[in-house]
Amino acid sequence: MSNTGKQANPGQDATTKVLEPFREIIDRFGLLLKRQAEESAALAPVDLGGLVIGEEAFLGGEPLVSFVDAEVFAPVFKQSASGVWPVLGVIFPALAEGLATLTAKADKDRTWVSLCLRAVVHGDAEALEQAAAKAAVSPDFLLMSLRVAYGPCIASVRPALTALAPVELWRRAHCPVCGADPDIALLENHPEPSEFLVSKGGELWHHCPVCTHRWRFMRLVCAGCGNQDHETLTRLALPDSPREYIYACESCKQYLPCLDLVERFDAVDFDLAALNSVHLDAAAQSRGYTPISPAPWTAMGFAETQAKAS
Question: Which of 178, 199, 267, 298 has the highest CB neighbour count under 10 A?
C-alpha cells in the first residue's frame, strides 16, 4: 500500500544532511553493489551435486558453505571477477593496477585460483597468505578483492543452500550461509502466530555483506566477541537520529551499526542499508571502535579516513 501524503520518516531530513559528506563513498560503492547484483543474476547455476548438510555441525556453528567443495565455485568466480574487478578499478583508480594483476593471475593460474577459493570460501588463512605472495599483493587487499568477486557467487547459490538446512534456527553472530560477519543490525517486527509475546522493541536481525542473507540474532550480545555483560555493552545514538544506533562493545572495542525499523513502514533496501549508514561507521571509528563488518567500505578504511577528517 502506498502513502499519498507526505509522511517523512522521523529523522529522515537529519539523516540526509549527515550523509552529505559521505556522498562520494555512497555513490561509488553503490555502483559496486549494483554491479555485484547484476553479476549474481547472470551467473550460471553452480552444481552442488548431492550435497548433504550435517545438521548437527550446522547447528553447532558451521556455515552451510563449509560443506561445499570450494572448487565448484571456480567457473563462476572467474566470471564474476572478470565483471566486478574492472568496475572496482574504475571506481577506485588507485586499486586498478593491483586488480589488473589479480585478473591476469586468475586467467592463467588455476592453482592460484584454487588457493583464492580456499581462502575466501573456507577462510583458509594459510591459503590466503600463499595466494597473496604469489600475486605480490597484500593479504588484506587480496581478501577484500576476493570477497567482492565471491559475493555474487555465493549469493546466487544461497537459495539452494538454505533449502538444505533449518536456517530459521540459527542464532549465531556470523552468517549461516557463508560465515561472514554482519555489516548491520536491524530492529524489526516479525509477528508470528506462534509467538506468545512480541517485544515492542522488535527483533534483532543481522545482514550479511557477502551473500546478502538475513538472520535473527539475540539482543544485548556483542556480535564480535559474544560479550553479554550489559555494563560493557554500549548503545550510542547520533543527535537528531533517534532511530539510528551504534552497538559498541567495551570488551573487544568493536561496533555494529543498527537501524530501528519498528515504526517505519516504507520499503527498505537491506542490501544498501549498511552503505547508507556509513556515517555511523565514521562516528564509531572516531571514538576508537573497529568494525565487525568485512564490507569493502570498512575493510578499505574509507569510513575511518572520513572519521579522522571530520
Answer: 178
- Poorest-pLDDT segment among 56-65, 76-85, 184-193, 242-251: 184-193
Total residue count of the chain as it appears in this document: 310
Please give the sequence-ordered ranges of beta strands (E in DSSP) within the chain, or none if there are none.
184-188, 203-207, 214-217, 233-238, 241-249, 254-260, 290-291
pLDDT in tens, 13-42: 555 677 788 899 999 999 999 999 999 999
267 with 248: CB under 8 angstroms? no
Distance (Å, rounded) from C-alpha 153 to C-alpha 181? 17
Q: Which candidate, 204, 167, 240, 248, places its Cα nearest to that of 15?
A: 240
The SS3 call for residue 118 is helix
CA distance 289 to 286: 7
pLDDT digits (tens, 9 = 90+) for 244-273: 999 999 999 999 999 999 887 788 899 999
Q: Say how far apart CA 106 and CA 203 lie, in whole Å.
A: 42
- Domains, in order of start, for the chain: 26-162 (no CATH), 170-309 (3.90.1670.10)
| CA dihedral sign of residues 62, 67, 68, 70 | positive
Q: What residues form DSSP beta bridges with 246?
A: 236, 257
Say whether pLDDT at 309 is over 50.
Answer: no
Residues 15 and 74: beta-carbon distance below 8 Å:
no
